[in-house]
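Because discrete structure vocabularies remain unfamiliar, we reproduce here a specimen of the format, pairing a chain with its fold in token form:
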Amino acid sequence: MNSNAKVKDADLQALDIGVEGMTCASCSARVERALGKVSGVQAASVNLATERAEVRFDPRQVDAAQIAASIRETGYTPILDEAELAVEGMTCASCVGRVERALSRLPGVLEATVNLATERAQVRFVPAMIGVDELAAAVSDAGYAAHPLGEPGAGGSEEADKRRASLWAMRRDVMVAAGLAIVIMVLSMGATYIPALDRVLIATRPFTDFWEWVQFALASVVLFGPGRRFFRPGLIAYRHLSPDMNSLVATGTGAAWAYSALVLLAPALFPLVARHVYFDSAAVVIAAVLGGKYLEELAKGRTSAAIRKLVGLQAKTAHRLDESGNEHDVPVSTLHTGDRIVVRPGERLPVDGRVVEGRAHVDQAMLTGEPLPVSKGEGDDVVGGTVCQDGRLVFEATSVGRDTVLAQIIKLVESAQTGKLPIQGLADRVVRVFTPVVLLIAVLTFAVWMAIGGNISMALVAAVAVLVVACPCAMGLATPAAIMVGTGRAAELGVLFRKGEALEALSHVDTVLFDKTGTLTEGRPTLADRGGADAAAALRLAAALEGASEHPLGRAIVAAAKEQSLALPVVEDFRAVAGFGIEGQVEGRTVRVGARRFMERENIALGDAQDTATRLEAGGHTVVFVATGTELLGWLAIADRIKPEARAVVQALTERGVQVAMVTGDARGTAKAVAAELGIDEVHADVLPQDKTQVVTALQQRQRRVAFVGDGINDAPALAQADVGMALASGTDIAIEAADVTLTHGQLGEVITALDAARRTLGNIRGNLVWAFFYNILLIPIAAGVAVPIGIHLNPMVAGVAMGLSSVFVLGNSLRLKRLKAYRPPTVAPLKDTIPDSPAHAGAHR
């Protein structure tokens, strides 16, 4: 294998991974050699028959993900799978860390990411080594309930029912805890403020400590009834040596309850001044923390509104036609590709398909953002989730289940919401040591107060206050809550983030590089002008010749001829002259159509047309010359219309401190004219489509953080190379793999919406983290009693309320992102109609 020193077998881990694409012994040998070269791999055996690779490796040098990557680099596909688990019972960032560690330790798990706000875990694993049930079992062993989720949006009703049941149970527990806590407080403190109540209590007690025993009974009900949701997972966390928020609450309230119970059971163990009971503190802390968690759950429900809206767009049943043409109502989950489905007016299309019968107007606002319905007839594509407004359509299913456009959108939003941003790393590192440090501070607080005054009651109260106020709930929610609301709201506005990391990357972008054709322009070249000795004949002959060409400019010429109903003659001996133009025999004459250099090569004099072409090109047109034999017949000026909002978008980006650049294959002169029209200073012209990646790389080497905006097809390499790739899309082109961000309505203004969403979300996250850290830094010392000399002391009951409100504050702050508005370019005068689309490169014919 490799040259690394052998390690003990006991220190090695085994990985059994499937490999797709091997066809012969040399394939398996190639994979085996590649694995053997990986640092840390001690043995690798690849079996062609089973399509499996068995690898033994040192986990201190290499992990399963790197081994899978090495297989992929050899040209074969490692068989991996992804699963999503719903995790119940997590309350803070420490819980998230423990679940992630429990999953990551499993053999065959490559990556595990847990989100507190969505209560979901995304796991990437090797299916040959472990299954989804084992993943869920590992989470359960860590002290939390878990179950696998199905397809995006699937089981939404079931999840909603579970959530409602959970909220109802929590509300019941809050009401029980709050009611009993109030009774305990009245019994313990009411007599101090209401003398009449004191007299009644004394008169009605059968023995001296009767009302304290009542408090004990009621507090026990609170702690081991509603409070059981803290004690069980808290004790499990201690068992795993990974205390969390539940551990802190359980320890604090349990200590107060146990101390008070000992005072009742064995008062002789305590000096007279220390014989106080704190059942009220224990009960009120449980009630306050539960109340805070209940408010959290309500707020979490609001943060996931975007997913619920998307799931609500999915039809539940469909009218399927059988072979005899009879209709049957069936669940959407039973549909297959090729099924014929009927949709009536007012119904939502259940899946994607192609119309085979009927005509109707379909509301596609959920995809395109356009309020006007689109007419659909035979041969047209339709998308699941859109609404048939009138007429009856029969269509054939082309995509079902997780392959539909709507399912892909839901998956993109869920993926972005579940992702973990780099900024979360700081909170994760802090939380990893936070709870143990808090426990240490609580112990030190108790010890210091005992050393100072010897009052065990005061020492206990201070220690309990530290434990309760320090729960890291707010830190755990700071990032995921903002991501959920920010990406969800962005999706509603037509901006889909494929992953959460793109959100943070976009917030740091300082340069936006626009592709021209189809991005800044409408991507549909049209004939803008014509002239010469016989302009009409030039158009007719050029259109005849271009009918055999596939070039976009050629199509524009043909379209112009059709609009004028010109009769096109037959072409013979058609030939494309790469980089110059095209030629052929038309009506017995040699006709040439192409760029100026084509005419010059054939010694065709341009005369006054040369000056005219120069002027038109400087103004942004592409000029094509038409000649018969050695005589110039005329010229055609072709243009691609600038999108009306392009200038406003460029100006808006500049106002936000972002540099704007454009990349195009046009000649530099015409590209400069376009840039001047749009207000763009930096232009990269004469760039072949395959060289756009080099432009992005060059900008990055100048320490620029680049977002590339393109149409998502020819620009795929540049989209992938950029720090953030943004693809304009429309209709069923919505899911573009190379882009980090998809602008679903295909409108240029969504670039601004995406940038604003990213910046505001990251600003919100920073605010949440600052609040969470500041809250703990400020209140832990106060709870410990450093402010007692100036008369400030934090009661455990107040600490419980403060802890709950901190999480509510973070969630409330995140919910402000729901007010994010889409960018609307101001109404401006139309720009110059045309800009160039000149193909001065290989593959172009003029």
Q: What stands out?
A: The two ends are 57 Å apart (CA to CA).
